[in-house]
Write a structure and sequence with these properties.
Blueprint: E1 17-25, E2 35-42, E3 46-51, E4 67-76, H1 81-99, H2 101-105, H3 112-134, E5 143-144, E6 146-152, E7 155-161, E8 165-170, E9 173-176, H4 183-189, H5 197-207, E10 221-226, E11 232-236, H6 238-241, H7 246-254, H8 259-272, E12 279-287
Antiparallel strand pairs: 1-12, 2-3, 2-4, 4-5, 4-6, 6-7, 7-10, 8-9, 8-11, 11-12
Helix pairs in contact: 1-3
Length: 289
C-alpha cells in the first residue's frame, strides 16, 4: 500500500490510551496522490507521529501530551496543484500550532472560546497561504478540503472545510461529525432539491461541487463532541466514502482491530472496489490506560 507509514502514534497522556494510525493511497485511477494527512501529539512542543509529508519529522522535546492533532486534506486542481495545496495547508497548520503551542498545553475549559478561535485561525492561515502561493488570475487556482480534529480528552474539537469527513463510533452507532460543504448539500438544506428523476442526472455533479475550500471561498464549520472510552474516531477523504458505505465502515470499526489494521482494511477494501480517487484514512481508538 503506497505511503502507509509504519509507526503508529503512541500516547504519553496518563488519562487515556490512544491508538492512532493513518494511511493514504493514490488509488487505481489517479496518476498522483493529492491527499495529505498529519497525526501529531502536542506537548510544550509538537511531536509529529506520522505524516504523508516530508520534512515535518522533528519537533520533539518535552513529555506529557496535552492533546492529539489529526488532519486530512484532499487537494483540488489536478496535475500537482491539488497535491501542493493540500501539502501547504497541512504544513501551515503544523507551523501555526507549533507557534501557539502554549494555547494547547495550558488549555482550560473556561478559555474554550479562545481555544476554538486559535483552531479556526490555523485553518484561515492555511487558506491565506494556499491563496498566496497558488492563486491564478481567473480566481480558480489550487484548493483543498481540510478536516482537523484536536483531541483534549475527552473532548474532540472539529474544524472542517469541504467534503472530507470526520466520524465517531459510539455504542455501535456511527455518527458523522461534519457536513459536506457541497452544492448538493446546500440545496438540500434549502429544500430546493430532491431525489426525483429530474435531479438524478445532476446529483453526482452537485455532490462534487465544493461550496467551501481552503484556497477558494472558505466558510469553516466548527463542532465538538465528548468521547468515552471504547469510542473510535475516523477521518477520511471522499475516496473512501465513494466506495465504502457507512454501514460497512461501522462493521469494520466495530470489529475492534487496532488502528493500523483498521486503516489497512478500509484502504484495501477501497482498492478492491476500484479506488477511483485518492483515499486517506485516519483511525483513532481510545481506552482507559
Amino acid at each position: 500500500m503506497a505511503n502507509l507509514h509504519p509507526s503508529a502514534a503512541s500516547n504519553d497522556d496518563p488519562d487515556v490510551a490512544a491508538d492512532v494510525f493513518g494511511a493514504t493511497d493514490r488509488g487505481r485511477v489517479r496518476q498522483a496522490n493529492e491527499d495529505q494527512f498529519l497525526i501529531a501529539s502536542l506537548h510544550k512542543s509538537m511531536r509529529v507521529r506520522q505524516t504523508s509529508l516530508e520534512g515535518l519529522g522533528g519537533l520533539v522535546r518535552l513529555h506529557g501530551a496535552a492533546a492529539h492533532l489529526l488532519v486530512i486534506a484532499d487537494g483540488v486542481g489536478g496535475n500537482r496543484d491539488g497535491e501542493l495545496a493540500s501539502g501547504t495547508a497541512i504544513e501551515t497548520i503544523a507551523e501555526h500550532v507549533g507557534e501557539t503551542i502554549g494555547c494547547f498545553y495550558s488549555y482550560d475549559v473556561e478559555r474554550e472560546h479562545e481555544f476554538l478561535t486559535q483552531l479556526q485561525r490555523a485553518v484561515e492561515r492555511s487558506h491565506d497561504q494556499v491563496r498566496l502561493r497558488y492563486a491564478e488570475d481567473d480566481g480558480r487556482g489550487a484548493a483543498t478540503t481540510l478536516t482537523m480534529v484536536t483531541l483534549i480528552w475527552p473532548r474532540a474539537y472539529v474544524v472542517h472545510v469541504g467534503d472530507s469527513r470526520a466520524y465517531y463510533l459510539h455504542g455501535g452507532r456511527l455518527r458523522q461529525l461534519t457536513s459536506d460543504q457541497t452544492a448538493y448539500e446546500e440545496l438540500a438544506d434549502l429544500g430546493v432539491i430532491s431525489d426525483s428523476p429530474a435531479v438524478g442526472g445532476q446529483k453526482d455533479r452537485l455532490k462534487h461541487m465544493l461550496t467551501s475550500a481552503v484556497g477558494a471561498e472558505i466558510e469553516p464549520s466548527i463542532g465538538l463532541v465528548d468521547l468515552e472510552f471504547g469510542d473510535a474516531l475516523l477521518l477520511c477523504t471522499d475516496g473512501l466514502t465513494k466506495h465504502v458505505p457507512d454501514d460497512e465502515i461501522t462493521r469494520i470499526l466495530e470489529a475492534g482491530a487496532d488502528a493500523e489494521r483498521t486503516c489497512r482494511r478500509l484502504v484495501d477494501l477501497t482498492l478492491e472496489r476500484g479506488a477511483s480517487d485518492n483515499v486517506t484514512v485516519i483511525v483513532g481508538r481510545f481506552a482507559a490506560p
